[in-house]
Amino acid sequence: QVQLVESGGGLVQAGDSLRLSCAASGRTFVGAAMGWFRQAPGKARNFVARINWSGDVPYYSDSVKGRFTISRDNAKNTVYLQMNSLKPEDTAVYYCAAQLPGRVSYEYWGQGTQVTVSS
To answer: Per-block average pLDDT, block size 10, for the chain (119 residues)?
Structure first.
């Protein structure tokens, strides 16, 4: 059974930091890129960040660039999202997802973790 499990969400104040983790189990995601997405209430799910398998090519949405950092530890099958200088508009459910080699879409998704930023 394939599983992606996010953790690290919570309630923080504007300007605070959080680090999200996403642990993969059930299969080996060798070569897979990993992404973070978020969905605010009443809105569509949006891309946040992506990192390639080797971890040396991160990519961010404009809304988080300079504040968020994506990283991964392949030995631990875990991807991270360090979120600094959080804003109320960052409030959302955050999902991690796996993009297998050669695939366009993200085929595996976690259940999400809630991040709430108060002003």
So the answer is: 91 98 85 96 96 96 98 95 98 96 93 97
